From TrEMBL:
<keyword id="KW-0645">Protease</keyword>
<dbReference type="Pfam" id="PF01244">
    <property type="entry name" value="Peptidase_M19"/>
</dbReference>
<dbReference type="InterPro" id="IPR008257">
    <property type="entry name" value="Pept_M19"/>
</dbReference>
<feature type="region of interest" description="Disordered">
    <location>
        <begin position="1"/>
        <end position="37"/>
    </location>
</feature>
<dbReference type="GO" id="GO:0016805">
    <property type="term" value="F:dipeptidase activity"/>
</dbReference>
<keyword id="KW-0378">Hydrolase</keyword>
<protein>
    <submittedName>
        <fullName>Dipeptidase</fullName>
        <ecNumber>3.4.13.19</ecNumber>
    </submittedName>
</protein>
<dbReference type="InterPro" id="IPR032466">
    <property type="entry name" value="Metal_Hydrolase"/>
</dbReference>
<feature type="compositionally biased region" description="Acidic residues">
    <location>
        <begin position="1"/>
        <end position="10"/>
    </location>
</feature>
<keyword id="KW-0224">Dipeptidase</keyword>
Length: 377
C-alpha cells in the first residue's frame, strides 16, 4: 500500500493548481483588510473627539443629593468612564431653566447652576476643566481633560438687563437661548432685543436659536455679525418637531457660518441611531459639512434613540456615518472642528466689535417704552 504522505510522484496538474488557488483565496480572506467602521470611528475620535453641544448635567446634578462622576452613576447618563468611552473632548453644559423661572428667580437659579458647575469641575481636576474659548478647549484636550463650556443660559437669566448679561459672561456663560422674554417673540426681536444681540456679539456670547420662532431666527441672522447656533435642533423636513429647523433656515445658516447641532432625542430625530444619522445627513446636505454638529441631550429627561442610551455611544454613531460614506474630513468637522471654528469666529467678531463700541447702556424701557412686547418687523 502506498504511503499516503508520499506524494512526490503525484502530478499536480490542473487539480493541484486549483487546490493551490483555493488555498490562496482562503489566505486572502484571512488577511486583515480595511478596518471595520467602528474601529475606524474610534481611531478618528482619538484625533477629533466629540464636542457635545448640549448636556443637561448641571440641572440633573442639582436634583440629586449624591452622585459619583468618577466611578460612574446609574442615576445619570453622563459620568467620566462613559465620557472617556465615548471619546468626548468638550461639552456645553446647559444652564436652561424650567419655564416658570423668571426675573430674579431665573437669575439666582442660573448663578446656582454656574456655582454647581464650578464645584463639579474642581472636584474632578483629572477629568474636567472649565473652558471659555476655543484655545481653552484645545488646551484641555491636550492635557487629557474634557473641556466644559457654560451655556446656553436661558434668556430670562439676564432679567432684561445688559449689565447682567456682561456679569454672566464674566462667569463663563458663552451662549444664550433667544426665547421666552419680553424682547423676543413670535414676530422677532424688539429694539432692545436687537441691542441684546449686538452686545452678545461684542462679548463673544453665541445666540442659541433652538426653540426660537422663524421670524426670530431671520431677525437674529440679520442683526448678528457673529455665527449663531442651534444647540438642539434637527431637520424639520424629516421630523416636524417645533424645535427642528426647516430647510430654508438651514440654508441661511450656511451664509452665517453658524452651526446646527443635531440632538440625540427620539422626539426630534426618531427612535433609532440610524434616524439620528438621517438627520445629520440631511443637515450636512442642506447647510453644508461646516455647519453640522452633535448634541447628546443627555441628562435632559428626553427619551433617547435605541443605540444611543448614554455618552459612551458616540463611536457607534460615527461608525454609522462612516458606513454611509462620510469622509474622514467631514467626520472631523462634525465631531470637533465645527464647534472650534464657531468659537474662534465668535471670539474674532467680539474683538472687532470691541474696537467699534463701548458696553451698551441701553435698557428695555428706553428702547421699547412701556409696551408689553414692542416688537418690530
Amino acid at each position: 500500500m502506498a504511503d499516503l504522505h508520499d506524494d512526490e510522484d503525484i502530478p499536480l496538474g490542473n487539480g493541484g493548481a486549483s487546490a493551490r488557488a483555493e488555498g490562496e483565496e482562503e489566505a486572502e480572506e484571512l488577511r486583515p483588510g480595511a478596518p471595520e467602521p467602528e474601529e475606524r470611528a474610534r481611531a478618528l475620535l482619538t484625533e477629533h473627539p466629540v464636542a457635545d453641544g448640549h448636556s443637561g448635567l448641571p440641572w440633573a446634578l442639582s436634583r440629586l443629593t449624591w452622585y459619583d462622576l468618577e466611578l460612574g452613576d446609574t442615576a445619570l447618563q453622563t459620568d467620566l468612564p462613559r465620557l472617556r468611552e465615548g471619546a468626548v473632548g468638550a461639552m456645553f453644559w446647559s444652564l436652561r431653566l424650567p419655564q416658570a423661572y423668571e426675573g430674579n428667580r431665573a437669575v439666582s437659579a442660573t448663578l446656582a447652576l454656574i456655582d454647581l458647575a464650578e464645584t463639579v469641575v474642581r472636584a474632578h481636576p483629572e477629568g474636567l476643566r472649565l473652558a471659555h474659548t476655543a484655545s481653552h478647549t484645545a488646551d484641555a484636550r491636550a492635557h487629557g481633560r474634557i473641556a466644559c463650556m457654560l451655556g446656553p443660559a436661558a434668556a430670562t437669566a439676564i432679567d432684561d438687563c445688559l449689565g447682567t448679561l456682561r456679569a454672566l459672561h464674566k462667569l463663563g456663560v458663552r451662549s444664550l437661548a433667544m426665547s421666552g422674554t419680553r424682547w423676543v417673540g413670535e414676530q422677532g426681536l424688539s429694539r432692545f432685543g436687537e441691542e441684546v444681540v449686538r452686545e452678545m456679539n461684542r462679548l463673544g456670547v453665541l445666540a442659541d436659536l433652538s426653540g426660537s420662532s422663524a421670524a426670530t431666527v431671520k431677525h437674529v441672522l440679520t442683526v448678528s455679525k457673529a455665527p449663531v447656533i442651534f444647540s438642539r435642533s434637527a431637520a424639520h423636513a424629516l421630523t416636524p418637531h417645533p424645535d427642528n429647523v426647516p430647510d430654508e433656515l438651514l440654508a441661511a445658516l450656511r451664509d452665517n457660518n453658524g452651526l446646527c447641532l443635531v440632538p440625540c432625542t427620539a422626539a426630534q430625530t426618531g427612535p433609532a441611531l440610524r434616524d439620528v444619522a438621517d438627520h445629520l445627513d440631511h443637515v450636512r446636505r442642506v447647510a453644508g459639512p461646516e455647519c453640522v454638529g452633535i448634541s447628546g441631550m443627555y441628562d435632559t429627561e428626553s427619551a433617547l434613540p435605541d443605540g444611543l442610551h448614554d455618552t459612551s455611544r458616540y463611536p457607534q454613531l460615527i461608525a454609522e456615518l462612516l458606513d454611509r460614506g462620510w469622509s474622514d474630513a467631514d467626520v472631523s468637522r462634525l465631531t470637533w472642528g465645527n464647534v472650534q471654528r464657531v468659537l474662534r469666529d465668535a471670539d474674532f467678531a467680539a474683538r472687532a466689535a470691541q474696537l467699534r463700541r463701548l458696553p451698551s447702556t441701553a435698557t428695555l424701557e428706553r428702547l421699547d417704552g412701556v409696551r408689553e412686547v414692542g416688537l418690530v418687523g
